[in-house]
Amino acid sequence: MVDNDLLIPYGWNEAVSDYYTPLVTPGSVPARVIRMDRGECDVASPTGPARARCSRSDSELGGLCTGDWVTLEVGTDEPTVRQLLPRRSAIMRSSVSGRSEGQVLAANVDTVLICTAADGDVDLGRIERMLALAWESNAKPVVVLTKADAAEFIPLDEVRAVAPGATAVAVSASTGAGLDVLTALLDGTVALIGPSGAGKSTLANALLGAEVFATSAVRSVDKKGRHTTVHRELRPLPTGGTLIDTPGLRGIGLWDASDGIERTFSDIESFARHCRFADCAHDSEPGCAVLAAIEVGELTQRRFDNYRKLGRENDRMLARTDKRLQAERNRAWRDISKQQRQHYRDRNSRR
């Protein structure tokens, strides 16, 4: 019988065991992806850390990603990933290539820390976009305003107003302020997302209690950060659970995030339920509760405009995906037809 005690620091627990153990095929053992590197990956296995061969990189739809649970073949000279086990959650954005496919940023995540530097421009629209990704992933989002010690003003109330259902905290990794509050919010596997310069790696090191990830200073002129983190990497937390640091996000395109948008803008959805007409477009219709909320100051025009913007973007992505799937189905039917025609030609030539 395989002893999985060495997997416990990497997120293996009773619930994970109950879910995955029946899926592990004979001749293989469970393992978790710590870091991807093209055709290979670092994994945590029942016998300790290992370097394993895998067929696809995390840049491909459905490919492996940091945080994935997999099975490894046993009894071979070189550990090889045999099977990607079903994901319980995944943070996905549209591919940076612009193609109609999704990119997994981290898998099997329980808590998403949305990091924004408090000493710079706190972009509420960007926070709303990242909240939509986090809610859609089936994980719990926490908005973290980092570098609180360097900020003249911390807009915590404004951030909380655009994050209904989520917790927002301000912390300083340098002084330790707020870290005890943040640590109490962490659950299971924690992923950090945000733009370069948001202090993700510095915060990750503070939570890990060691200088694990490289850090660099932002430009003093515009507070822009450099891409210090280039790989997604999973590490055990000293307080239990695991942490995944991710590279800075330049573009945060939505990928099938309808539910995430609805939860991010639950206040607008709540107003809309009181509109006179069920199909109200919230433009100029009489009895529109959304427009009424804007007029009396219960809802800002900026937030409503971003709600519409993200909805249109998501609709375009879904339409592109539908067209891609239809094109794939058409190609498959053409291949079948071609094979059938060739079959009939071969059959006729034998007569």
Name its key features:
351 residues; alpha/beta; OB fold (Dihydrolipoamide Acetyltransferase, E2P); Rossmann fold; five-stranded antiparallel sheet; flat
Chart the SSEs and their pairings.
Elements: H1 14-20, E1 28-37, E2 40-45, E3 48-53, E4 69-73, E5 81-84, E6 90-94, E7 102-107, E8 111-117, H2 124-136, E9 140-146, H3 156-161, E10 167-170, H4 179-185, E11 189-193, H5 200-208, E12 233-236, E13 242-245, H6 258-264, H7 266-272, H8 289-295, H9 301-349
Parallel strand pairs: 8-9, 8-11, 9-10, 11-13
Antiparallel strand pairs: 1-2, 1-4, 2-3, 4-5, 6-7, 12-13
Helix pairs in contact: 2-6, 2-9, 6-7
Please give a structural write-up.
The chain has 351 residues and is α/β, with parallel strands linked by helices. Among the domains are: 5-84, Nucleic acid-binding proteins (OB fold (Dihydrolipoamide Acetyltransferase, E2P), Beta Barrel), CATH 2.40.50.140; 90-245, P-loop containing nucleotide triphosphate hydrolases (Rossmann fold), CATH 3.40.50. 32% of the residues lie in helices and 21% in strands. The chain is built from 9 helices and 13 strands. The chain has helices spanning 14-20, 124-136, 156-161, 179-185, 200-208, 258-264, 266-272, 289-295, 301-349, and strands at residues 28-37, 40-45, 48-53, 69-73, 81-84, 90-94, 102-107, 111-117, 140-146, 167-170, 189-193, 233-236, 242-245. Strand 12 (233-236) and strand 13 (242-245) form a beta hairpin. The termini are far apart.
